[in-house]
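Hi there. Long-time user, first ticket. I'm pasting a complex I've been working with (about 918 residues overall). I'd like to know whether the download I got is complete or cut off, because the file seemed smaller than I expected. Thanks.
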Amino acid sequence: MAAPSKRSSRPTPVRKAWRSLTWLGVLIVALFGINAAGVIWGDGSWTPKLALDLEGGTQIILEPSVADGESVSQEQLDQAVSIIRQRVDASGVSEAEINTQGGQNVVVAIPGELDEQTRARIESSAKLELRPVLLADAATNQSIDPSASPEPEDGAEEELESTPTAEPTDASDPAWVTPALQDQFNTFDCAAVDESGANVAPADEPLVTCDATRTIKYLLGPVEVGGEDIVDATNGMVQTQTGATTGQWAVNIVFNERGAEQFAEVSQRLFALNGQTPRDQFAFVLDGAVLSAPQMNGVITDGRPQVTGSFTQESSKALADQLKFGALPISFEVQSSDTISATLGTSQLQAGLVAGLIGLVLVVIYTLFQYRLLGTVTIASLIIAGVITYLTITILSWREGYRLSLAGIAGLIVAIGFTADSFIVYFERVRDELRDGRPLVGAVEAGWKRALRTVLSSKGMNLLAAIVLFILAVGSVRGFAFTLGLTTVIDVIVVILFTHPMLQLLAQTRFFSSGHPWSGLDPKALGAVYRGRAEFRKPVQVPATKVASSSREAQRRQTIAERKAAQVDATVGAGESKES
Amino acid sequence: MANRLTTFGNDLYTGKRSFNFIGGRRKWYTIAAVLLILSALVMVVRGFNFGIEFRGGSQFQITGVAEATQDPAAQAVEQVAPGTVARITVVGDSGVRVQTEQLEKTESEELVVALADAYGVDRSEVTSSFIGASWGADVTRQAILGLLAFLLLAGIVMALYFRTWKMSVAAILSLIGDLVLTAGVYAAVGFEVTPAAMIGILTILSYSLYDTVVVFDKIRENTAEQGEESRRTFAESVNLAVNQTLVRSINTSVVAALPVAAILFIGAGALGADTLRDISLALLIGIIVGTWSTVFIAAPLYSQLREGEPAIKRHDQRVLKERERAGVAGASTAVTAS
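Hi, the file is complete. Here it is re-exported in full:
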């Protein structure tokens, strides 16, 4: 773009313009720097990652782990697909594809490779239960009978008494520990937790299980609070009372009213048992294994417990997501995992890109035809928007797992229209001001004030659409919303930090301010000067003299127009003569 | 030196030349109504050709393939079930997965044979199964929920911004019209409705509303700034605003439509990228319809909603009376299409 050839008597817009352009430069350099840092020190890249349809990925076939003879219903499968989709979505905007196969399996196709983290995120049922601890002991991994069933009912291997001698009064009552259960607990092998994917007991029965590291075994009372009462779950660092972080990751749970009430009851009872370890402990049980079994150190009535365990940032986030979207109705196991190719041939992508490019060239030609040299500002703005979009998408695909699908690319191409419209609205407003007889510099400032309002309100509508759909929708609609929001924000940044400053600077040049015919801002061609406001009123047939008083706005313009009109009275020409 | 559209723009701005968008609203409403009824009819009669992402379909898995490429499968599908859109994926090193719409039993058996032959493997290496929809009911439900929430919020935001709920009503009604029309064209053309097409339609919704807000903002400017002292009737002010933004509307829709049209006609038509055509069709129709409806439906609708207001009625009557009193010849040409 042409640099301003002279800085004239109006320093304020010029200085403002340079300040804006500097900010834009800083922004681009910063994005560039972040990306470069990602490439050098992280696993970033200079190109964005592509989605399933363009790059392929991994196909995971999940098989429900149910006991022999049992089958899963279509309803359970659909529910599972819905929950898995939300879990996958929560990990980023990668647009996974999830469907059922043969009325039995769930197929998850994700771009990229399947890592342990994703695998756990997808397949575990994430059924959370809060149970009080009745007995705890170091794990003995030398059980003679590995088939020892964890279920207490049919766990009576011998003739031991399996019904409580006295009716337990609450979940912490030691009366739950029947001789049969005691025996099962004594012989329990922690390996059994891993073995059967279903170490479960009915909610109103005790459960024998181990902790995540398989070093402590527990005999737990019946379920006190269930995962279905969770309304939200987030991950975060554990904080001490002084607000310092301990560096330990935890999952913060928010219960609904019922859950909070039940939890308050439990915490009251367990707090009263303080000192009678392990009966003052309660256990967070996830899919049959104990995540953590902290002591109740106070009465918690707000229904917001915090679960700790051997979490990393990723695993705590995964668990929080799983808890938030609810437990799967059935557990799944990965039956097979294969790499899959893109469904769209590379030839198709190329054809699309070539077509898009041709379309862009057409846009350039049209813009130049419409706006002459001013069109180059549009083109430069589009290029700047393109650069920022590319860098942002590349960074997001590195940090947030964003992936570009064909629909996403089409969305970006349509965004050209949205983006160019900001410039068109702006230019047309400037032209309108010129038509009213303002000199260029004033027209640019006045036109900008009006255009910015229009641009912000209409872009605000786009942003609203993007945010609402991003929050509420799932799957590929979410990816679309993300792209829409991103391009909208970038568009506003470019029009404020580039297009307007450029026009401010160009308005100072002789080429534009003299209204060169090729500038696209030729007042004569725009019908200004000789026409003025008077004829603006023509269609309603009001004499020019009356118009002056019509409004403050009109009056202001009228005087300028009249003054101009007096100067160039004779030059009735160019625009008029061309009219058909 | 000005090109014709610039001159045209000048004339529209000053009002020298003016299209009577508001006055001719009966005509536009009738055209819109006819188009909407046609769309609805086509949708009911022809229905939509939903892709396998929505309906589920048949899947064929070929294993133990020496050279896993996509072409033999494409030919086999074309041979057995011509015109079927197949999604062919290479799985691992030696597997090929073919997904098609739900095939008849005989067709499906034929395709197993054809696929086995195409890849030179034993028939037992080809398994067929049914796959469920990847765009399940839950995705649709959430998308619709999102859409409704958006429309509600957009209506409220617009009402607050423009300080009148009537603009919201006009904008959203014309938006719904766009949606029906786009869907109608889809049903008429019979292109497969894929997730990409749905995304295209969502894009259109936001484009259409965006376009309406741009024009409405000019209407707000014209009607608010001129206020009580205006020498124009309300309808004339609205009409002038639409005319003044007409060049913008044309330029914007051309700039937005050019790349999309290129993808549709060159990409999908000439270069054969089939998968691009569904999304680009939705976008192209939407851009055209969205621009059209703002000018011909949303603006007249808004004017009509406001004209009945007592203050505006009084103002309009005064303007007309004054005009009569001024006795200027040809007062009837207040808003003239030329």
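A couple of notes from our side: Residues 57-131 of chain B form a domain with the Alpha-Beta Plaits fold (CATH 3.30.70.3400). Chain B has two domains: 20-50+136-324, 57-131.
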